[in-house]
Every structure is written in C-alpha cells, then in structure tokens.
Amino acid sequence: MADRTQDEKVLQRIEREVRMQEGAYKLLAACSQRDQALEASKSLLTCNTRILALLSQLQRIRKAQILERAGHSRMAEEAVPCAGKVSISNLRIPLMWKDSEYFKNKGELHRCAVFCLLQCSTEIHDTVLVMVDRTLTDICFEDTIIFNKVDPGFQIRAELYSCSSVEDFFPPAPAPRRRGFLGGSLGCSSGKKIRAALETAAACSYVSSDGGNTTLGHVPSHSLHQSALGPKFHLLAHTTLSIEHVREGFKTHDLVLSATEDSPFWLPLYGNMCCRLVAQPQCMIQSAISGQLEVKLEEDVDHWENFYCILMGRSLLCYRSQEDLESEGEPSLIIPITKDTRVCISESDPVQQITISIQPQPENVTYTATTKSTEDLHHWNKALCQHVYNLSLWKQCSDEVMKIGMQRPRKTNPMKLGSLYHEIVTPSSPRKGPTIPDLSNEMRTLLSSYYKESY
C-alpha cells in the first residue's frame, strides 16, 4: 500500500513536469526575441531532466513491487539515519581569458548564456541565466539552492550549461501537439504519458547534454522535431558533491570539463568551482525525545535526581521541571552526546538502567539514567542509540549547527542581458514591437506556476 501511494505521488510529479514541458514548447514556438527563447530553452532542459529522474525513480518503485508480488519478502529494516537540508550558495566559477582578450579587448567578442543545473536524486534546481563575455573574470550565481529531506549519503551533481549568443536564431514553427497528453486519469493513461515524456525528455537530453548519463536507442521523429526548437544549451562542465565536501565557509571544488576550445559554446574555465556547501541534519535542530528521567553520576551512587530531559543536537539537556524548559531557563545538567558516545541497557541491576558513556575523554565519564516504566526505558534507549547513529553518519555536519540562508524567490525574468562593456561599446539596436509576445492565458499560468512552485 505504501509503494502504491508512492507510485501515485511520482506519477503526479511527472504529470506536473509534463505540463511544464508542454508550456516550454509553446513558449519556444511563440518567442520572437532571443532572450525569451534562451529562458524557455533552459526551462525545457530543466523539465526534461526532472522527468528522466522521476521516471528512474518510478522504475525502481515498480521493480520493488514486482519482486514483492513474486514472493521475495523484504529483509528486516535496518536503522535509517535522519534526513537533513543541504544548501549551495555563492557559486563562483573563475574564467581564464587570454591577456589580449581581457586586458586589451582584442579579438572577436565571445559571448555565451550560461546557467547551472543542480540535481540531488529527483530534486532538481536551476540557477538564473547569466550572460558571460571577456569583461567578466568569474561566472557568479547569487542563487541559494536548498535541497530538503536528503540523507547523509547524498550526491549533488552540478552541471554548467552554455549557449553561444552568436548562433543563428530563427523563430521556430509550433511543435505538434500531443493530443490527450494532459487529460485523463493517471491510472488508464499513465503508460502513454510516461512513454511520450520519456521520448521527448530523452531526445532533448541527447541534443543538449553532450555526453550525459542517459543511454538512448531510437528517438522518434516528432521528439527530435520538438527538441530542435530554439537555441541549444550544451554541457560545459560538471562535478559531484557529497558530505565529504561540506564545510562552513567557502571551498573550491574541481570541475570535469566537457567541451573543447573549438566549440562555439566554449568558455575558458579555470577548472574549479567555488561555493558554500553546508548541511543541517534534523538531529541537530529538532528534539529526538523528551520526558522524565532519573539521572545519577557515577561518583554519587546513592543520590538520584529527577529531571525533565530533552535530547537534541549534541546534548541531553536536563531541567528541574518542564516549566524551566518552557521559560527558556538554563538546564541544571548537560550530558554531552557525540558520535563516540556508547549507550546500553544494564541488566545486572535490580532496576534496568541506561548507561551513557562519553568517549573519548582523558577519563571516560559515565552517566546512568532510569525511568518509572520499562516501556519508557526502552523508548529512551532506542532514541539515544538512533541519535548517536545519526550523528555518526552525518560526520562533520553534526559538530555544530551550520546556518542555511533563506532561498530567495525566483523572479519571472531574472536574466540580466549584457555586460557593461557590451552596453557601452557595442550598443544593440532598439527593439521594435512589444518586448514579450502576446501569450495565451494558459501559457501565462504555466510560466507563473513554474517560477512560483518549487520542488
């Protein structure tokens, strides 16, 4: 039943992305200005990447369902670490122009539109478009990208895409509409929708990724026609980030370059990417368990203290009463909890007790606690063991609480076209007619929902 619900949720997410895909095609067909086409092409690439990721997830879910129906019972569930948030911000990619280009402004003005695509499992975000020419020493993305509910084994793939501004742009003819693609129920038409979405997304991935991970066979002609619409973004460089790369502050990461100098979309990348990558596991900011505990120190075997305790972060906070906690008073006792802490239930005493050993220390410190009921004791023991397990898997992310900035709302037209050099030295001719073509209400709704709804 749980897999069935998860299956339906993934199908609904695919349905949403397919609608956005249709909207991007309509926008490409309606575009008469290159800046509009670039934004629509970026949106289309992002939608297709999400569709491919969701289809892979759907395949894994259905494979598990088939194995279960075939009588392969699931193994006992192992301990699952808590989830957390991961944030990437202040992304900088240095450029290495030739001296004659940067200092003397000689040679042809090479200009590209670039953006970064960031993927963690099925959660995919894109940055704003940035126009890059030889007047810039760095490609700067001011976006704050936040991935929610990731596990400590996360892998974030960062891809840098580029499109040359000198490529010829011709307003494309409208793509053929897939009738019945958006209508109907998920149950009876999901197969056709999934196949059509896969064909189109894979075709666009084939045209735009230049060496992506997707292996393609025969691509239908209608998909190739649709993927040929508008300007093309090409993979310029990529890297993969994991928990080992998380640090407070800025850090440099190596890029794998995917383009050569003879490519029209090429940029002189230095080969590095600088960003602030931080993580905030739930165990550091949320209470794992709270309630009454009787605690004693190892040195004082006769005296027990009754506390209201709360387990959060790297501490078991012990208050005299729940009122002291609610009034934000200082705890009477703080028991440190780290990834090296050992927790076990002592069976030798007349009353079962939880032993908490703090290691490593110059001298190991041991705390003993108990509860009024055996059931509560086992709840506390399970919560403490799970908490230590969470801290150990989140590694350096559990040393202190890392601050995650707010995710700024995405503007409808965030791309700033032109550098200072381009505006002063080579001013463009004034545009004729409206800046944005007259689009249908359906198209405006699709575009509005794309920028307002987040994954």
Q: Would you kindly provide a written description of the structure presented here, covering whatever features stand out?
A:
With 455 residues, the protein is of the alpha+beta class. The strands form 3 sheets. It has a 7-stranded antiparallel beta sheet with strand order 15-14-13-12-18-17-16. A hairpin with a 7-residue loop joins strand 12 and strand 13. The chain has 10 helices and 18 strands.
Per DSSP, what share of the residues sits in E-state strands of 2 or more residues? 25-35%
Mean pLDDT: 78
Q: What level of helicity do the residues show?
A: 25-40%
Q: Largest sheet, order of strands side by side?
A: 15-14-13-12-18-17-16
User: Structural class, from secondary structure content?
Assistant: alpha+beta
* Pattern of helices and strands: HHEHEEEEEEHHEEEEHEEEHEEEEHHH
Number of helical stretches of at least 4 residues: 10
Low-confidence stretches: 174-186, 206-226, 412-440
Number of strands: 18
Any chance you could write out the topology, listing elements then pairs?
Blueprint: H1 2-30, H2 34-69, E1 84-94, H3 99-102, E2 112-120, E3 123-126, E4 130-132, E5 138-141, E6 145-150, E7 155-164, H4 186-209, H5 221-227, E8 234-242, E9 250-254, E10 256-257, E11 272-281, H6 282-285, E12 289-297, E13 305-312, E14 315-319, H7 322-326, E15 333-336, E16 342-346, E17 353-358, E18 365-370, H8 374-393, H9 420-425, H10 441-452
Antiparallel strand pairs: 1-5, 1-6, 1-11, 2-3, 2-4, 2-7, 7-8, 8-10, 9-11, 12-13, 12-18, 13-14, 14-15, 16-17, 17-18
Helix pairs in contact: 1-2, 1-4, 1-10, 2-4, 4-5
